[in-house]
Amino acid sequence: MNRTYIAVAGIALLGLILMLNPFYFYPDGGGDFEVTYHVEEIENESVAEVALLQSEQVLHCPGERPCALERQILETGSVEYDGFIDDYEEARDDPLTSEDPRLYPIVRIEGEMYLPESEYENNRTILTLSNISSMDAVEHASVDAEDRSKEVREAVETGSVTVYGERVEEFEQNLIIEHDEDYYWQTRYRSQGGHWTAGGNLSGVRVVLFTLGGGLLAYAGWCVRKVTN
Question: Which of 62, 81, 118, 123 is deepest in the core (most CB within 10 A)?
Answer without folding.
Answer: 118
